[in-house]
Amino acid sequence: MRGAGVGGGGVRPVRVARVCELQATDPAVADVVSGRFPAAERLMVICGQAHDAATRIIERARLAGAVRPDFTSEDLLLFFGTNAALARAVADTAPDAWRRQVAFLLQGVGTGTAHAPLSVPPLVSQQVYEVLGRLTTAP
C-alpha cells in the first residue's frame, strides 16, 4: 500500500486504521464491525453488505497490485474481529496497544516488501463467522 491510500477505490490504510480506532473508542462500533450479535438479523444483513463491499474493494486493490495477491476480505474481517477483542482487552492497561497490531497488518498486506507464500490458507467466510462468534461472545 502506498502513502495514505491506493487509488481507484482500493484499500485505504487510513480508513482501516480509522475503523480500528472507532472499535477501540466505541464498544458499539466494535460490536457492529465484528458481528458480535449474530441473532440480530438486520444488523447481520448490514454486516453482510459491508463484507461484500470489502470483497470488491480488496479485489480492486489486488488487481492494482496494491495488496498481496493472497489477502482476502475474510482476512480483513477476521482482523477487525480480533482488533475489537484486543481493544477491549488492553483498554485499562495499554489503551493504544491495538495501534501496533494495525500497523503490522497494514505493512504486512502491502506489496512494497517481499513476502514468502503463507503456509496456511485463508479462512472461508463461514469459518470467519464461527470464529468471530466464539471470540466475541458476551461473557
From TrEMBL:
It comes from Streptomyces cremeus. Residues 23-109 form the Transcriptional regulator SbtR-like C-terminal domain. This is Transcriptional regulator SbtR-like C-terminal domain-containing protein. InterPro entries: Tet_transcr_reg_TetR-rel_C_sf (IPR036271), TetR_SbtR-like_C (IPR049445).
